Amino acid sequence: MARRGSRSLRIYIAVDFEGAACVIGQPGDPKATLGSGLETNSAIFRQAQRLVTAETNAAVRGALAAGATEVLVEDNHGCGHNLLYEQLHPEARVLMGGPRPRRFCLLDDSFAGLMLLCHHARSGERDAVLSHSYSSVSVHRMLLDGEPIGEVGMDALVAGERGVPVILVSGDEAVCAEARAFLGRSVVTVATKKGLGRNCALSLSPSKAQALTEAGAKRAVETAAGCKPIRRKGPFTLIRVFKWESQADAAMRGHGAHRVDAYTVRWRGRTIEELI
Predict the structure, then answer these.
(1) Cα dihedral angle (209, 186, 104, 16), rounded to 10 degrees?
(2) Same-domain status, 214 and 114
(3) What is the pLDDT of residues 92-132, one digit of tens each?
(4) CA-to-CA distance for 154 and 114, rounded, in angstroms?
(5) Among candidates 125, 141, 131, 116, which has minimal Cα distance to 199?
(6) Which end of the chain, C or N, has fewer beta carbons within 10 A?
(7) Which burial class, exposed, middle or buried, applies to 146 when counting CB atoms under 10 A from its CB (0-12, 13-18, 19+)?
């Protein structure tokens, strides 16, 4: 496989769900407040599938227009079976299903960049649509070495350990701000909507969001050479504060878990990947 700086230009797109334009939880559904609010096979989920697939195709088009020679799309939400595969851009290859051996299991330093598409802000952020940190049901808060962190930060560090920079983040304004604060000015962000609460947003139209995503992906690939992987030296301490004591009980079954209090579990690891 060709590495960065060679003729091949490989791009990895990890597609979540909650950050696409016009995607919110099911109005009136308690799970829209307590959980994801995007239950599989609901009408709102099926609509979201179309919207997320269209934004994914826009990112693929932008990457190819900038000279990408290969685009790998990872269906990265929930069970990993969300996109409408028959509608995907013909030049994209898709990683789907699970369980998978590790986070971003095909990502290595042969890729010029990682895009985090249709993402959401970390748990605890205000005016953030369907915000959470890996689990919308169980995790109340997550901290790395004492600082709040969400999926964008953790995923950027995982990618960094493999020598790959995050070059684009799309989602609501809250996750875009989170990405810029963590990754710096080199990352391209595409804001698809402004959160007015967990389950309320002022959204761009799908067509506008797709146009911005395509342009953003093109710019991200064109400037990828100037992006550096985010690397930090371990060891690391990860803390998860759970919503219920029983969830912390279950987490104690994992390797290296240390109970801090009824709701809180701590792990230590030499790498971020050990902690995911």
Answers:
(1) -20
(2) yes
(3) 999 999 999 999 999 999 999 999 999 999 999 999 999 99
(4) 13
(5) 131
(6) N
(7) exposed
Domain range for 129: 10-134+151-230
Q: Is 71 exposed, middle or buried (0-12, 13-18, 19+ CB in 10 A)?
A: buried
Domains identified in the chain, total number: 2
95 shares its domain with 40: yes
pLDDT means per 10 residues, the chain with 276 residues, are: 61 98 77 59 89 99 99 95 97 96 97 99 96 94 98 98 98 99 97 96 99 99 97 97 98 95 98 94
Residues, the chain, total? 276
What tokens were used for 214? 């395509």
Quick one: CA torsion of 55, 209, 33, 250, rounded to 10 degrees? 40
> Over 183-215, what HEC string results?
HCCCCEEEEEEEEEECCEEEECCHHHHHHHHHH
Alpha helices in the chain (DSSP H): 30-34, 43-65, 151-161, 173-183, 206-222, 245-251, 272-275
Q: Is residue 144 part of a domain?
A: no
Give the CATH number for residue 23.
Answer: 3.40.50.10780
Q: Is the peptide bond before 229 cis (omega within 30 degrees of 0)?
A: no
